Amino acid sequence: MSIADFNPAAEVRGDTLYFDGVSAIELAKRYGTPLYVVSETTVRRRCAAIRSAFLDKYPNTAAVYASKAFQTLDMCRIVTEEGLGLDVVSGGELYAALKAGVAPAKIIFHGNAKSADELDYAVRSDVGRIVSDNLFEIAELERLGALYGKKVRVLYRVTPGVDSHTHRFISTGSLDSKFGIPLDPSVRDDYMRAVLDASHLDFRGFHFHIGSQLHDNFSHLAALRIILKLVADVASAYGYAAPELNLGGGFGVRYLPGDPALDPGYFVDPMMELIRSSCGEAGIPMPLVTIEPGRWIIGEAGITLYTVRSVKTIPGIRTYVGVDGGMTDNIRPALYEAKYHALLANKAGEAEAAPGGAPSGSPVASAAAGAAAALVTVVGKCCETGDVLIRDIALPDPRPGDTLAVFSTGAYNHSMASNYNRIPRPAVVLTRAGTHRLSVRRETYEDLVAREV
Ligand code: LLP
Fold it and tell me: Among residues 165, 320, 341, 418, which is most buried (max CB within 10 A)?
């Protein structure tokens, strides 16, 4: 598989990796490493795909970008220009969204333990929806609605009790979860009465999100069946047909060349069909249906560039390739055992020449690529044994000074970055069809001590 088959924004010219028409080597020289590079072209294409597979195809639908995946002011502007709304989960994300100029009505505010200040901020700002999953919050929202003379539009996040096929740390829909309201009827009735009796709350319907990085639609459909039964039960018990249904996110992306490329239709088509048939049977109108993709929009749009700083072979054991970033800019391998694909951006021709394109973790590929592409383990610079970015990947003769490009780092890398070891967080560069511009500057040492009083 050539790199362009794996990631359409990637291309090899001579020995050099180009991303969205820009030389990765030029970007590394110009902006330094580690560097997050985000293809605006890919982000906009992905938003267009959401429009054609969902928004334009089905009436009465909405898509909001789950901005926790990667939130910058530029990103907020790009996705809203492309017709999506924004999902935020904290006062900080809300602040940035508003600062970027996102219309409050297009914002959905989530969170299982929002603070009083956050709720006040959300109500004052007139966010489009607040998704709640606890009665304390419902009482607080009713109080704030009365205080500000507003009707607060509320959704309930419920726990469908479905296990999703993903890493247990990013599975959220099972019964034993900190997210959502359990559907046990005794619990449910208290919630329904509380929200329907409140005079400053406008109850819009239900939300579920069963997990992230899902490669099949089974758990979405299983959860949806349960929620549709809930909608029908609530309609008959309370005479209230919830006008909205929010299906969350979770659509998986490609991290390794062997991963399937899933388009949004694979997830939304069967769900829309199920909603249509279920509402027909229950005799209730089709609700407004919302989806909340995060990773699917930004994941494959991002790569991270590193400079190789050390190469260390332990005879008979392994070769460690040390780069100038690590778990501070990408915590996912340490946290979820996440796998990534990478290549040397200045020796990309050699990887392309290898039959099979030397997919990561494949000893076959390394043998095929010859002695030059031995399996190595890419590690970061943190004082932490677990700071391993990629275990066992075939790289052609890595040397200090080489530029390593790691793919599919757009989602949950920049947004989960830390300053462990007082390592400044990388800059973010946006590319668009051969052009590039700085979007977020690199953190400085001064930034690192700026909050100390
Ligand atoms: N909606 C809700 C309510 C969510 O909690 C999430 C993600 C999404 C939408 C977007 O899910 P996505 O489409 O991105 O899968 N840090 C983890 C992922 C945590 C996801 C949390 N919630 C990771 O790096 O894999």
Answer: 341
